[in-house]
Amino acid sequence: MELAQLLNAMPGAVAQGLIWGIMAIGVYITFKVLDVADLTVDGTMCTGGAVCASMLINGHGIWYSMGAALLAGVLAGLMTGIFHVVMGIPAILAGILSQFALYSINLSVIGKANVAVPSRLYPVLVSQKFVKNVAFTKNSIFVVAILTVIIIALLYWFFGTALGCSLRATGSNPNMSRAQGINTKRNIVIGLMISNGLVAFSSALYSQYQGFADINMGRGAIVIGLAAVIIGNVIFSKIFRNFALKLLSVSFGAVIYFMVLQLIMWFGIDTNFLKLLQAIVVALFLAFPYWKKVYLPAIKSMKKRRLIRKHNREVLAARKAEAAAKEA
Amino acid sequence: MLEAIDLHKTFNNGTINEKKALNGLSLKMNEGDFVTVIGGNGAGKSTLLNALSGVWTVDAGNIIIDGLDVTYMPEHKRAKFLGRVFQDPKMGTAGNMGIDENLALAARRGKFRGLSRGISHKEREEYREMLKILDLGLEDRITAKVGLLSGGQRQAITLLMATLKRPKLLLLDEHTAALDPKTASKVLATTNKIVNEHNLTTLMITHNMKDAIVTGNRLIMMNSGQIVLDISGEEKKKLTVDDLLHKFALVSGVEFNNDRALLS
């Protein structure tokens, strides 16, 4: 348990956090903007990496591979959208179905359980080897930070357009949206496509970062994505009100999540229990806004409550005494 | 302007809760007509408005707006012709978007929504002028989230949104019912002002019989999914609440059973 060991691991945690931050921004779009809980991402978080790795191995350029990964994610979102909107399946179930179906697709893309894309053989953008002792512009933290800023700028622009505004309205009030002539069904599909495209893009980066794509790399992704969204919201909601800054806070949320995770591992906790711990951390962060609403007023009014109880006791005692006096 | 021909709608068909909400209703409205609708609980008033706005399709009959048959046109496409204000002030606006953004959404009703700006500076200034007409001080808070406003303010904004692009038909579904009396009369006054200014064809459901009598040029009364009374012109001007209750009992054979209407 040396501090140096922890500090040594932190740059890696930041890079990982930033990569997952892009994924979390995708989750934010469905969960917060569209008000749809989309579980497709557990599948898409593997699809992107699988497609990117396979493309790289087949000798395609890095940007083609990343573009193909993004497109695969967009199609996965379209699949969920069709399940939900055309077939009338509730959003959560539609996402689970897509995720289930994507397992087969991912497996057929990779061809086996996992496939390596080592940074020394392929022109990868990021890698865990490029975190320390490399030129600043080659540093994975820098590269992902730039990509994040570009993505946020694009999304900020998009959600300010007439179409983007109608997407936000769809999530905020579907009845009103239809009354204002907005095709809410189509908009939900568009939102799911954008969201899953981002998740797949993040997945493509993640496979490069780890140096391999794995059939299980998306398992539980939604938990991490939600954690980032909620941590970002809980910590930064007071200061970040602008839409672009809200997206940035999601990215920060992911970074904080991975740093905390690193800290937990540094404490030497059995890694078998990692998922359990992650679930507990996320549950606590999810509970935070609710607790604040329900229990904070209760704690604040504790003294007043005690006085009221005392008062009521006295009133009842007085009545009892009065009744006893009457009887006597 | 509007022609509804022999509309039928049954909910929960074939179950013990089967309810014939519209039962062969026909209604013709001329351009510039301002029709008020009253009726007992479950008479089919809101069902009529939902049928016209396309929340679901009717079981039988036709709906014609401005010469076009919209019977099977989906809700969001039909919205091009319609302005709607709902009973619940929360229903008509997007709570976590700004006043300006809500108005900008309404300004694009019936238009293609592409990648052009969602709201321009010029538009925002126009909206500021419009909000001044409402006289609620909203012009100074134009970027405030609508969710922070009171019910009356939200309803006034919804009214503005419904009429921003002049609708062929304005549908008001008890839009003052959820407001306190003072705010309700203010919103109603604004409604009259906007409707008269643009000579809008309007269908207004109300539970307030007095409002129904003094507002508009025509009054219809509904019972069991049908129109049982249709009064307009001079006859309407001379109406009293007692007259209405009496006439209702006469034509329908039952007492008028809208508790809220009787109490108010």
Descriptive report:
The complex is a heterodimer of chains A (328) and B (264). Chain A is an all-alpha fold. Chain A is built from twelve helices and two strands. Chain A folds into two domains: 3-268, ABC transporter involved in vitamin B12 uptake, BtuC (Orthogonal Bundle), CATH 1.10.3470; 273-328, no CATH class. Helix content of chain A is 76%, strand content 2%. In chain A, strands 1-2 form a two-stranded antiparallel ribbon. The longest helix of chain A has 31 residues, at 3-33. The radius of gyration of chain A is 25 Å and the shape is globular. Chain B has helices at residues 45-53, 75-78, 99-107, 121-134, 151-164, 181-198, 209-214, 233-237, 241-252, 259-263, and strands spanning 2-11, 19-29, 34-39, 60-65, 68-69, 82-85, 169-173, 202-205, 218-223, 226-232. The mean pLDDT of chain B is 91. With 264 residues, chain B is an alpha/beta fold. Chain B has a single domain (2-95, 151-158, 165-263), classed as Rossmann fold (3-Layer(aba) Sandwich), CATH 3.40.50.300. In chain B, helix 5 (151-164) runs parallel beside helix 6. Chains A and B meet through helix 6 and helix 7 of A and helix 2 and helix 3 of B.
The major pleated sheet of chain A works out as: 2 strands, antiparallel
Q: What is the subunit arrangement here?
A: heterodimer
Provide the β-strand percentage band of chain B.
Answer: 15-25%
- Number of distinct beta strands of chain B: 10
Low-pLDDT residue spans of chain A: none
| CATH level-two architecture of chain B | 3-Layer(aba) Sandwich
Shape field of chain A: globular
Please report the two chains with the greatest interface, counting residues with C-beta closer than 8 angstroms to the partner's C-beta. Answer: A-B, 22 and 33 residues
Strand elements of chain A, count: 2
Which structural class do you get from the secondary structure elements of chain B?
alpha/beta
